[in-house]
């Protein structure tokens, strides 16, 4: 049993950790159940100023809260992994919202309502997407082939399975975008920010990478994509 003791009013949280056989029935190594406790307790102190005592109590409350959250995460990792995409929007004009963009989210991807562009068709759109903020937009299954998306902001967008063949992403901010299984053949990444973005199983044949801004670790991951042409690998600096 693990316990964390902090001086303060007597409070506590105990959670039983499930055995590994419950978490993974295929595991051949059983694990006994254990009890994880977070305990916040204190002994009474002598007289002191009210201000110091109030501040001390606030610090104890914050510490106990942090430990409680940690305990819940440690005992139930499924909580963090169970997030799913929201249902497809039924709004009739949801595809047209790409022409307005997300005026709230910007680089942090925070929004009051997600921009749902899933399965929308923007083929050869040359004017209405340029420079728009599509931060945290849901783009899976959408078609942007031949579109001008220069200077667009797509921070934290979800573009799994989307098609961007021949799209111009010049001067765009595409950080932390999930391009898994997306078709990016012939896409132009000129002076484009790609830091934190993932391209697992993406098609990158004939994609142009000129003065691309990307972190070293992200670059190493991108270079493992075998569909990138020899010229593209040279532009990226793949070894």
UniProtKB/TrEMBL annotation:
Residue spans crossing the bilayer: none
The entry's keywords: Repeat
Presence of keyword Cytoplasm: no
One Pfam family per UniProt: Pentapeptide
Keyword Repeat: yes
InterPro entries according to UniProt: 5peptide_repeat
Protein name per the record: Thylakoid lumenal 17.4 kDa protein, chloroplastic
Organism: Trapa natans (Water chestnut)
